[in-house]
């Protein structure tokens, strides 16, 4: 299964530092969205999220659902994988993992790509990472 939708929750959100990198590839306006059973952590100049239905039941991360123009999707995926430190051939050594997740919008749920913390970042978080209680990078 594939999709041209991404859930962005940190520096890729509208108005944030990496927004200009994806803005021109959008197929429409970003839509407010959230990811259930997840928590956000402050990694300094960027966030990381962990999805865990047991540990973070009832919690959510706030972000935006963006749809990428189909003809631009391959180049956007390569670019985002690069900046997120994701290597599909070596998930265990990737900083972030690109996973399909169910994201909630005002119109219901949508499957979208989400970059979640990989093993290395999860070790940092487990060692005392600073959780963003609001789940919203813009309200940190």
Describe this structure as you would to a colleague:
The protein has 140 residues and is of the alpha+beta class. It has one domain: Hypothetical upf0131 protein ytfp. The chain has helices spanning 19-23, 73-83, 119-126, and strands at residues 5-8, 31-36, 38-42, 47-51, 60-67, 96-105, 108-117, 130-132. Strands 1-5-2-6-7 form a five-stranded antiparallel β-sheet. A three-stranded antiparallel β-sheet has the order 4-3-8, covered by helices on one side. Strand 6 and strand 7 (108-117) form a beta hairpin. The chain starts with a strand and ends in an 8-residue tail after the last strand.
Give a short overview.
This protein has helices spanning 19-23, 73-83, 119-126, and strands at 5-8, 31-36, 38-42, 47-51, 60-67, 96-105, 108-117, 130-132. It has 140 residues and is an alpha+beta fold.
Topology:
Elements lengths: L4 E4 L10 H5 L7 E6 L1 E5 L4 E5 L8 E8 L5 H11 L12 E10 L2 E10 L1 H8 L3 E3 L8
Antiparallel strand pairs: 1-5, 2-5, 2-6, 3-4, 3-8, 6-7
**For the record, what CATH class applies?**
Alpha Beta
Mean pLDDT: 95
Number of helices, counting only DSSP H or I runs of 4 residues or more: 3
What structural class results from the helix and strand content?
Answer: alpha+beta
Query: How many structural domains does the protein architecture include?
Result: 1
Helical residues, percent: 10-25%
Radius of gyration: 14 Å
Q: And the CATH topology?
A: Hypothetical upf0131 protein ytfp
**CATH 4th-level superfamily:** Gamma-glutamyl cyclotransferase-like
Second rung of CATH, namely the architecture:
Roll
Strand order of the largest sheet: 1-5-2-6-7
